[in-house]
């Protein structure tokens, strides 16, 4: 049995609080630095390497982090989770997103169904549907092939799938896997749907309505928006729309859709990219085999996350170091910096994944915790960020821990050699340089040009942004966030903090408001 | 004469530190709350209103903030700046971006030139060029009209102009001002340029090379990338490229360009959207009149920023409240949340503007400061963010001050009425609801569903995202950041913190590295 205790009750955490802080500049300079970079490194799935040499840890701190992992029973808790325990205590639900891409433990049966079989079945149904769309067996009313797909969803039904689509778009084009172009409508701002619809050939578009509950205000509103547009063009919406929802939602088994594919309450929105939520759009855009490869990469990383020794488990160690930075060193935010244009929206997805999962003030028993939990997460691709907010990262008054992501090869392999190096080499040289610049700084008598260093970062290095690599990377962060939730003893799988705004917005629309809210409504001329 | 003193030497700052913290939940509840929302409000340019009722201030704190503004001589410093003082002390430069859109004070003569006339002249030269492109007087080699424009730039030459283009794209389409579609290449990642070039009809595209110094690595690399692509298509690059640069750069007066338009060292990259850097791409895309309207809005807001009473000066008051939150209340980050899909990349621009300007640890004399300066800035459009990181904002352990931006009307005015309200009404109801939800919270016995409230926000409300409104909004933030720099006594106009990474990257490419950096280079297979 596992014990769920608050972080600050654990002996190894108290030991961590007493540990000497590593002087990163010292540690990373000279031969000692080189040794660290080679040694503080763990292989990940899909050929990735996680290198944490430039983090403020040493062998002593790592030893205590290992003790913390054991004391907090991280591996046992993960095992309980993937074997079907009710880890989402707030909503009293199982947490099964790992099952969408593989089976790590026992059969999990819920609602009378073997859930692994259920998710596989949905993946297969989507694959069959996508193949029929691609072959021209399923067409529009005129018998013409569908050429575009438009996902209508918000939050987890948007950010993850959108980031994955953008990440693989160029790879697919290069590798003959670009079958349909995809678009996304999310915001209730009518300009979002209007602009997307103006860009899309709606007569040849399939729209995917994604809402687990079938009740999300933004998504249903945008569905109506799209249906109106289709009707205005003389098209039958039911011939252009599919649904991804739960079997119990009003959208299931409805004549309004060409087909419906299912997820369930055991998959949180922000963990749903590997379920039908990501599966439908990615299988239509790039083909079911590409989606299967994406799942394969995620499954490989999940397998690695079951490794009990944190020093061989990159997901767990990344989580432990993050908690050390947040709770012992006191850093309030973290930047994720992919040196890859393909990952331009990956930080926005991670922002949701992390902040919505662990931005909590009460533990899984509903009791207040007295230590900081999830940090603010932000990021933009490098080298763009270097010409933007890196000024503050290098010379600001606060320290922001960083995580870089780099790749050996570009996706399109279309490059130029200028001044003796290719663009990809320049890109890689920049990320390598940044790690050392942040860690070691540079002394200058002019303090305006002085770099103190001591600013911690890690890097995840991969070969290329392929479907498999992307799956592994996604799973790494999902597992990291999960392990951090275990450490903070919070429920990483509910999101009660989003409810109050929804309730009040409905009251505004019903005119059932007074005082301050009424004044804001008047100011905005609602 | 003005005195430049550190924030913590000012008597009114010390008084602020002693002030009672406002209980926001109390203040915003009931009739008192309604009164605040009506009273704590300042008109801005272009029809905007800045409402700060849901910030943790009261009449006493506001009084001290007014005293702080006076003691720090904010108005006098701004006056010095726009009259041509060397406010960028690190680089010993004037700071003249306000002059690109109007003249607030005396003639400013530098390098033997009246700078207002210089900027106007460049704006006019761009307008003439754009008009000739639109009329077909300037064409490609085959005499065909140019239909697309591609900006090649990074950092300030990218983020601002790109955010402005995205903000006005739909407005222009609706109002018959969409003349050329614009694209942006920034990252040295070769996949960026490759993907953009694959999307663009290069035979009918004008490329704008933007680099003040003419030496930016990424930009020159991407220029070569583009020139190669043009040559491969049998096109003459010199007939397809224009430059925006300084008159002293290697790009000026070069036969490699159809034309060159000038900025100068007195316009920082992140402040250059209203100079030729934004002017060329926006005038080509939407016409010179649209760019002129954008400048007009910025000039109006600048005028307002000269108002000496902070309670009538939204840019100054926003700055003061931000410093109060950062230095007295101790909040380390700030989120900017536009409820407008048009402003989807506006937060990324503000992230650079703010973090690159004020992410400094030394004052303008090069002495270390002993208080926090610029915060971490992040944001995504609402309602999207509500389904993502708002969980942490509502229930996380840290408080993140917020600034909402809302508009009464959508840009495309294409809307649907569903369940008794339009999408635009739903969008506005959501932003109003969020302010009150953050401020007042909601008690629940189940602490997992409890909202403590007390989370501060302000809102800027406008009519619609028009060119003029966008200019005013941009200028508001530029001026806010400037006033905060004055308060922190830092130089907001240099960026020495970006240099070290560049230097080290060059060494990596030259193979001139050892130890840790060498190991990272090996890991990345550079």
In short:
The structure is a homodimer of 526-residue chains. With 526 residues, chain A is α/β, with parallel strands linked by helices. Chain A is built from 18 helices and 15 strands.
Number of helices of chain A: 18
The residue-averaged pLDDT of chain A reads: 97
Strand tally of chain A, please? 15
Span of the ends, CA to CA of chain A: 54 Å
Stretches of chain A where pLDDT is under 50 for at least 5 consecutive residues are none
Q: Quickly give the structural class of chain A.
A: alpha/beta
The profile of the biggest β sheet of chain A is:
6 strands, mixed
List the strand order in the largest sheet of chain A: 1-2-15-12-10-11
Overall radius of gyration of chain A: 24 Å
In percent terms, what proportion of residues of chain A is strand? 5-15%
Helix content of chain A: 40-55%
The chain pair with the largest interface is: A-B, 161 and 161 residues
Kindly report the oligomeric state of this protein: homodimer
Global geometry of chain A:
globular
Key terms:
homodimer; 526 residues; alpha/beta; six-stranded mixed β-sheet
Secondary structure topology:
The structure is a homodimer of 526-residue chains.
Chain A: H1 11-18, H2 24-28, H3 30-39, E1 41-43, E2 49-51, H4 59-71, H5 74-82, E3 109-110, E4 113-114, H6 115-135, E5 148-152, H7 159-174, E6 181-185, H8 190-199, E7 205-210, H9 217-232, E8 241-246, E9 259-263, H10 276-286, H11 288-305, H12 314-328, E10 333-338, H13 346-358, E11 376-378, H14 390-395, E12 402-407, E13 417-418, E14 421-422, H15 423-440, E15 457-462, H16 467-488, H17 499-510, H18 515-523
